[in-house]
Amino acid sequence: MRLAFMGSPDFAVPALRALHAAGHEVAAVYCQPPRPAGRGQLEAPCPVHRAALELGLEVRTPARLRRDEAAHAAFRALGLEVAVVAAYGLLLPPAMLEAPALGCWNIHASLLPRWRGAAPIQAAILHGDAESGVTIMRMEEGLDTGPMLLREAVALPPRATTPWLHDQLSDLGARLLLEALAARPPAVPQPEAGVTYAPKLAKADGLLDWRADAAALDRRVRAMNPWPGAHFLHAGEAVRVLEAVPAEGAAPPGTVLPGPGLTVACGAGALRLTRLQRPGRPAMDADALRRGFDFGPCLATPS
User: Given 1.10.10.10, 3.65.10.10, 3.10.25.10, 3.50.50.60, which CATH number is that of 203-292?
Assistant: First the structure.
């Protein structure tokens, strides 16, 4: 099948590789333009860009699409049967959504209509969902509102993390995409009930508020790593929490309790912080960090 692939981050790479390995004709790969990265701030291509070059595929990196009529015309000129979209990062205007004969198909990392939006993987963990999954949907102008072609669930273990679920759904999305392209199943409208949204994350979403329940803070730590990173503020620093587990304990929120690691009283229960990272420093076990850094008797709660 002649198609275009549109994606940018690591999540999309398995799908691109699967399409190429299956013998589909990838006419062009669209991804985000190279951006400054690393200490030297040198421009670096995104993961999909690197994979496409490795596979010898044409790469296009428009900075915007909505009002770029030349880009619309170039896309139509590809003569596509379908376009596959996986975490591309740019909204497709109607002129592009309607150009491929079978439309644009999106690999979405949730069981739609739950968790439409930009951060479905983190949202599933943050809210304690029992399962997540992938939906292959045909795109329309609304935010993840299009009809569904295939979907498959993945059970979440009790201590699932964003990196774990990311990798599970990335591989599942590649497999489901090939199945959908082979079978071309009928599109089924999404249910009207059960719609939830997962907005784009900001740095502030990683801030730990000790007044919350320990179980909720544990989920936040597992959901927000590696980005935006779970953290708390102490002595003018944003200290990252890389690993934590719920613990027993009761005291005013923010109180540092006795015991291994750095155990902090929460609104209900306590959270034992086991691996931490100060700004500009290497990650350390909490016990080792406490030997050289005084957290005092209490950690501040956000104002």
Answer: 3.10.25.10
